[in-house]
Amino acid sequence: MNNEYKEEKDRVEQSGQQETAESRALNQYMPAQTASMDEWKRMQLIYSAALKEVNTKLEILNAEFQMTHRYNPIEHLSARIKSPDSIMKKLRHQGRAVTVENIVRYINDVAGIRIICSFTSDIYRISELIQKQSDVKVLKIKDYIANPKPNGYTSYHMIVSVPIFLSDMTIDTKVEIQIRTIAMDFWASLEHKMYYKFEGNAPENIRRELKECADLVGFLDRKMMAINEEIKKYSDEEEEDGVLMSESLRRLYGMVNEENEAKEAAVQDGKSAVVIDLEESELRAADAEQESQAARKKLFAMPKGRKATMK
After folding, report:
1. Coil vs helix vs strand at 279
2. Contact 54, 177 (CB under 8 A)
3. Ordered domains of the chain (ranges, CATH)
4. Could you count the other beta carbons within 10 Å of the beta carbon of residue 112?
5. Cα(126)–Cα(117) distance, rounded to whole angstroms?
6. C-alpha separations of 80 from 26, 48, 140 in Å
7. CA distance 298 to 125
8. Which residues pair with 77 in a beta bridge?
9. Which of 76, 126, 127, 219 has the highest local Cβ count within 10 Å?
10. Whole-structure pTM over 0.85, yes or no?
């Protein structure tokens, strides 16, 4: 693998191609002369971290949606790291050498997450929510729902990159996201199993039957979504009116942030920051106690010009 890596690296340099920021960072993190197993372990670390980042974002979005709309757009999630054997087969199918650089540059689905939804409308809603994430960069979208494959395959694919913060660098790492309905996933899983037996060369009658099943799946998704829209009309609560937190609570969060910033600025200026965080009743009690202490001091104070003598 080391010889192949050197040959491929020389070829890239001679052709004058520019490395992406991601591949440059990975080349720094994964030296060319390390053992193959070490290279793969480092890649697993980075891509596994990327899966965790995206998975956490999706879980938070789903929980927020449940709170605001009392409805989960995500039925379930599954994640996987592509096996070394699958990666090598894909690179060789493309006619490329099996190198770390080629894996990073040309294989977009080393890390993959599949999202299963109830309705087609959920697919586009989740896609919009992912695209709004400030630290997620969308690299490519393939909408096989609007444009199904000839065999009937329907799904929504996204290639995104997320920053992975290591101890000495930040690496933007690619993740493939597939979003499907339950019906789409059912068809795709069975189609894959059937085609696997024929190694991609299924008889014409089977291909025709599978395409008819795909059409039925599309009809089922459209029918179920229409029923769901009809049910919404009978709901007492408008879905779009759902808000995670009230405006007063939003203002409170803003005030807390402003107070913290003011305190930090005061400390940086060399001033002592005195923080009082008491309920109104506690403040009143503190004022009363202060007045009581002042009264006692006045009562026991000695008159001016008079000295106390002790025998």
Report:
1. coil
2. yes
3. 2-183 (3.30.460.10)
4. 20
5. 9
6. 20, 8, 20
7. 71
8. 115
9. 126
10. no
